[in-house]
Design goal:
The chain has helices at 36-49, 78-89, 121-137, 152-162, 183-189, 208-221, 235-245, 255-266, 272-286, 296-305; strands at residues 9-16, 22-24, 32-35, 53-58, 94-99, 142-145, 169-176, 225-229, 249-253, 290-293. It is built from 10 helices and 10 strands. Bound molecules: ligand PBG.
Length: 310
């Protein structure tokens, strides 16, 4: 356990429009959707405990959703406003923004679709690039494209460089599987697809080879860090990726994995703290440099109190 540090943790947040609101996410005990004012409080508490990286997901009001996901890159969109405030008020904080379309499209897919509901690759890359630029302009340190659109890292890297944001880094959701573990997140972000599933763009969980190829592609396209997601059912991929590429690597301990822990603890099956440390240690052992986890603030507190073994 000695080598697990809060520096390795990234805490995800859901940002909503409005003021002084804190909406508990139905199936994620302990996680709320926050307006920017409350987000500031939360992030600075976590920062004081030692979590210096925040991953932001914007929640789009229903009436702003449309086929083109305009709200995602509108001037002063919710994520851009949140980034600007966080960077202004919390020194030493690294802000990572999720770059995707599913929370903003009327159909809930991570892409712009054509009339036949097929992915329009060009328009999707244009929209993702605009989102990344809007976040970069507000001061995001990292953008994290999660749409699994082909060549998304390359397109975003080019757009950032062309617009004077060469310093903004990219965390690629490189090996993102079409997983059943994302259910609770889709409630939180209001991003469930209205029809079909995401198998056309997310990876088949039986295919390790393809996953490793995607990671290699993202590195070549210019990603500064790559990611495997979810974490627990995919530790083999985490390990292989680290061994094969020896490149900065994150693993995302996703919403469904978080809920399993909480539910088990809730019915007395195990002690939350102990199981969280076991899980986190396993992800680190497999080779992840960074762990994106909804437990981040708790872990940091436990580390600080030095009571994680009791
Ligand atoms: C959106 C996105 C998803 C997650 C992160 N970004 C869900 C999805 O692909 O439907 C899941 C995160 C989690 O479950 O905690 N592209």
């Amino acid at each position: 356990m000695q080598n697990l540090s809060s520096k390795n943790l990234i805490m995800p947040y859901f940002v909503i429009e409005g003021r002084n609101k804190k909406e508990p996410v139905a199936n994620m005990p302990g996680i709320s959707r926050l307006t920017v004012d409350n987000l500031l409080k939360e992030v600075s508490e976590s920062k004081q405990l030692g979590v210096s990286k925040a991953l932001l997901f914007g929640v789009c009001p229903r009436h702003y959703k449309n086929e083109l996901a305009n709200y995602a890159y509108a001037k002063n969109n919710i994520v851009s406003r949140a980034v600007a405030e966080l960077k202004r008020k919390i020194k030493g904080l690294s802000v990572i923004t999720d770059v995707c379309l599913c929370a903003y499209t009327s159909h809930g897919h991570c892409a712009i679709l054509d009339k036949k509901n097929k992915i329009d690759g060009k328009k999707t890359l244009e929209a993702l690039s605009k989102i990344a630029l809007s976040h970069a302009a507000s001061g995001a340190d990292w953008v994290a494209p999660s749409a699994m659109a082909k060549k998304q890292v390359l397109a975003i890297r080019e757009a950032l460089d062309k617009n004077g944001f060469s310093n903004v880094k990219i965390m690629g959701y490189s090996a993102k599987f079409a997983s059943n573990f994302y259910g609770p997140f889709r409630d939180a972000a209001d991003s469930a697809p209205k029809f079909g599933d995401r198998k056309a763009y997310q990876l088949d969980y039986s295919d390790a080879k393809k996953a490793l190829k995607e990671i290699g592609d993202d590195i070549r396209e210019g990603a500064d860090m790559v990611m495997v997601k979810p974490a627990l059912s995919y530790l083999d991929i985490v390990k292989e990726a680290k061994q094969k590429f020896n490149y900065p690597l994150a693993a995302y301990n996703v919403s469904g994995e978080y809920v399993l822990v909480k539910m088990g603890a809730g019915i007395g099956l195990w002690q939350e703290k102990k199981i969280v440390f076991e899980i986190t240690a396993s992800i680190k052992r497999a080779g992840a440099d960074y762990i994106i986890t909804y437990h981040a603030k708790d872990i940091a507190r436990w580390i600080k109190q030095k009571n994680y073994l009791t």
